[in-house]
Amino acid sequence: MNNHRSLALLATALALACATQPPPPAPPVLAAKPLARPDPFPVAFVTNEPSDAAPAPAPPPVLLRGGTVLTAAGRTFERGHLLIVDGKIASVGEGPGTPPTGARVVDVSGRFLTPGLIDTHSHMGVYPLPGSEGNSDGNEVGNPNTAGVWAEHGFWPQDPALPRAVAGGITTIQVLPGSANLIGGRSFTAKLKLKGSAREMRFPGAPQGLKMACGENPKRVYGAHRNGLPSTRMGNVHGYRKAFQDALDYRRRWQKYDRDLSLWKDKLAREQTQPSAAPAADGAKKPEEPPGPFDPPDPPARDLELETLAKVLDGTILVHNHCYRADEMNLMLDLAKQYHFKIRSFHHALEAYKLRQRLAAEGVAVSTWADWWGFKMESLDGIPENAPLVAAAGARAIIHSDSESEVRHLNQEAAKALAAGRRLGLALDDNEALRWITANPAWALGVEEQTGTLTVGKMGDVVVWDRHPFSVYAKAAQVYIDGELMFERGGTHQVTDFELTLPNAGATAQTPGAMP
Amino acid sequence: MIAHLLALALLTPSAEPPLAIVGARVERGDGTGLAVGTVVVDQGRIVDVGAALTPPPGALIIDGRAKVLTPGLIASGSQVGLLEVDLEGSTVDAALEGAAVPAFRAIDGYNPRSWHVAVDRAQGVTRQVLTPRGALVRGQGFVVDSTGEPTSVTRGVRVAMFGAVAGDARDAAGGSRGGALLRLREILDDTRFYRANKSAYDRAQTRALALPRVHLEALFDVAEGRLPFVVDANRESDVRALLALAAEERLRVVVNGGAEAWLAADELAARKVPVILQPSSMEPWSFDALHARDDAAALLDAAGVPLVIASSTTADGTTRLRQEAGVAVAYGLPWRKALMAITLTPARVFGVDAQLGSIAKGKRADLVLWSGDPFEVTSAAELVLIDGRRQDLRTRHTALAERYRERR
After folding, report:
1. B76: distance to nearest CA of chain A, Å?
2. Does A250 map to a domain?
3. ipTM of the modeled complex
4. Which of A118, A493, B37, B197 allows an S-S link to B26, with CB 3.0 to 4.6 Å?
């Protein structure tokens, strides 16, 4: 009895001892900063692809002068200029500007310049035109969590929607997996200079995104159609929790591996610089370290789903969450906090106006439409004032398309939302509404340093409109991407292989129309 | 039947005093306009239109200066009020199962209290052409007003039969376009046979017919060329096959969709066959639309084809009707032709132009006063009249916006 008791006490003491020992130097689990190694899961390892296309030779300088320059950075220059050198904006401001040697000078008097438009929510390339079974590559529905798939790998660069989007002034898109899955996979941010492969169209340096979806779609796809999990919003949340719990564990395993690896390297280095002392001359035996090779630690098994989520925890993949209802967005923000990741933007988010203060406080962007509503239960409370209310509260509002038609007139959609906001009495200027389709989407995609405003040093992504872009009659007259003229109405335009022999976006020069 | 409903439709009791909209730019919808004009409304009708009119004594004066007055917009291809939440089957009454259901009257399931009716009304849509969904022969369409009142159902006018020759129609007819056309010919043939042999049919002394009695009866007016048959057709070959069918069977057809109709523009014009299309979606969305082009509306109009502009009816009701007209103008359609395409031309195509579709003396006072150019998405409808009555422009949207404007 006594023995038993003392054994029990001993066990307790040992346990206490363990618990009270100084903890091992734990890696910061909560911080959203990268691990010791810059990228434990390098892209090249997974795909055998070079990270980006070789840079193309820079187009000759171009000076656009005489038009109204809407910078989306606050300033507007009437009869201003914009100079692009080596694909980057070299000068923007009042007056005619000075053309460097060899520059093409384009008179854009009476026209309006804006940054190239950016669509944060596109399925071009993964659900290409014309609709077909053979080319439907946007939803990998085999599992509610397909975090390991990449939209880039399903992207068909011959989608005839792409050059039409450019004709609508779009220069950058985020291609997302669909919303069937709770966690649908990695997004792909592309510049719309059409190339033969997705890789060559990657926006250089853009972080990848992760598509997540709340609400009705995952419920319907897995529950109603397949009698599986999830079939309720409870099941949805369980799915996210499970995935991120697993990701935390997975990340911890890799962090432990990193730590062990680093200890092993230190040890190896010590061995090399301080070889063990020669055996004593008297031959007396000394206690030795255990023999055996200095094996490096075994890395944990890689898991492509968890790898994506681990990058989300690290903050290197940005979360774009399809979520309509305010209560669900609140729930997702709480969940993200519990698992120590950030939601970069909500998509569709028709009820964002109901939690706009929180979105502003937590720095979460909102990609939405101007007037889609009522097509399913979770879209019942969509109102045209959504984006304006979000903007007026100080959060980043974005007008997105989710449609190969709507992407062609995103400017009109922004104008529509702006007008609704003004009718509600919100003080919003044109610059703010222009940011909904330029600077704010650039931020959501993590490329705000490179594009999204007409600012010196940024990419030469510019649209020349034949009238103010908030007019329904406005059409892009010219579109430059990295300073290269990619579209000119009635002139230069990109043509996909698919469109050969078909009418296409740039083939016809229409007379600008308006109210007489 | 049509005459009966029209008679009902004429009953618009109004105790309100005359009303005069003064000083607005008046765009009549018939291709003409007044830079500054006055329109007088009494007893639900437009009683006077002119540049220098004196409003009658006692008239309620509405200042229209710096604003634009148009006829109420007519939304073709609408399912507003036939469905509330598209993905909730229990709220959708837009289709009857079956490949060919001509007797189906979508209006019997129309809900004037639908939230969508109010939202579309606030965008200047005063009449909806209720259009069933479905396959080969989808049923009858009706024009209803957007008042949101129960009378909009009783006053609804049957205006067309709807169908298709591709897409779902093709699938329902055995999986090929040839099957769809074969089945249409069979149905029309049996319609005429039944009409000639009704009593024999009632005595069970005829062969079996392609459709049950009620459906064949519903097709009498179509087979006689009195009721338009509005057929979804996008591919040029479908448009031409439809024209051939119409010639052969002496039908009055209307092309709906018409993505590639511009390729058959001359023939459509020669036969005065109207085309209903959605200008903003002229991209190759299907193999049936590979030759779609943005200036399709302008090309059809230039060739002399009666043109009707419609909006998508999926995610946004018919609120984008005026934006669609604006897109057509951006791609070359003359502005006044675009207004006609959402007012007088649909009224003509659906046979209600004696009452609706333009600002003309004697017509019903469906009028919209806009803050500016109605096609600009930044303009708003400030006053909407249906049969001379001011409409409530508050919606579920405005209620939500007001509730949350100040809420933190």
Report:
1. 19
2. no
3. 0.94
4. B37
